[in-house]
Amino acid sequence: MRLMKSFGISASGLSAERLRMDLISSNIANINTTRTAEGGPYKRRVAVFAESLDKAIKNPTKSAGRGVEVVAIHQDQTPPKLIYDPTHPDADEQGYVHMPNINIVTEMVDLITATRSYEANVTALNAGKTMALKALEIGKG
């Protein structure tokens, strides 16, 4: 039943967007983290999505879409921000502190986008559920 496949596709989108929102939350929470286990300031993390093809490549006559999957979580390689604060414990010899490469405006825009994508997947899931219930009602009559 293709309706069940649509539920799986929407569920994969929900999971991917939830992970994206978790990463954005982590980025915002670490906006002032100047010291990490790897050394240096926290680096912004971004999820990379890809279409999940499963068996569609073997049988191209079938629907190719199987949802979305997270293929990687990358660290943004943008250089850290330098803030002059010679009193900070992590300041270098010149008095500059290496701050995370996080822009709060970018994170908020990404968060709104992820939230809207999540809501769109919920709407698609609910529409599929409504269609399935209507189909069952037709069968009763």
Mean pLDDT rating: 89
Q: Report low-confidence residues grouped into runs of 5 or more.
A: none
Q: Helical element count?
A: 2
Strand content bin = 15-25%
Instruction: Identify the strand order in the major beta sheet.
Output: 1-2
How many beta-strand elements? 4
Order of helices and strands: HEEEEH
Structural class given helices, strands, pairing? alpha+beta
Helical amount among residues, as a percent range? Answer: 40-55%
N-to-C span? 21 Å
Number of domains: 1
Give a verbal description of the structure.
The protein contains two helices and four strands. The strands form two sheets. The chain has a two-stranded antiparallel ribbon with strand order 1-2. The protein has one domain. The mean pLDDT is 89. It has 141 residues and is α+β, with helices and mostly antiparallel strands. The relative contact order is 0.21.
